[in-house]
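G., the chain you wanted modeled:
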Amino acid sequence: MTTEITRIHRLRRVRLAIWAGATALLLSAGGALTLLAYMAPPAPRVSSVGEADIRSEFSLTDHTGRAVTQADFAGRWQLVFFGFTHCPDICPTTLAYMVSVLDLLGPQAGRVAPLFVTVDPVRDTAPVMAEYVSAFHPRLVGLTGTEAQVAEAAQNFRTWFERVEEETAPDGYRMAHAGHIYLMDPDGRFDAVFQERDQPPEAVAEEIVKRIEKEK
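Predicted structure as tokens:
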């Protein structure tokens, strides 16, 4: 556990470094960023498909050890990301981005459940997930389960993952996986999908607030 805690502390530093670096870049770029805003192509818009066969259906265990299903989050919008705790870059970066969106929602944040589903349940037990999600946000929910349960959840979200043998990776393997963040409506239906590289967190937060207000 000492090794795991050390890694969690390192992830906290990574998250701080990511946003500190972004801030420094904005300050140093100055007017150049303004010019690039006119020269660069517009950022890709959120992908949204009305009748996609993507469903929030799962039977998993949260990071407190409690068995949960999609019914436990009914009535709230869901931001869902599939990854794993040994991921060296994409997962911590995407989770930092996702919780920034959550913070930007302000008073509407309570209407959204942020869910991190592991694709590596052998290593990502409930205690490991609890340590990991605490490095990002107090409201972030870590979900794990048996390999069959995780595979079923991934299938219902139409996402993919694969174990890749790699001698230099921890325990001799890593997990290849998609990097999408799914937005599911309060009934568990697919609404939209986001990727960290496509738009700033402010744009995603604005999209979600629009949907919440429209729901009223």
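The chain is about 40% helix and 20% strand.

Shout if anything looks off.
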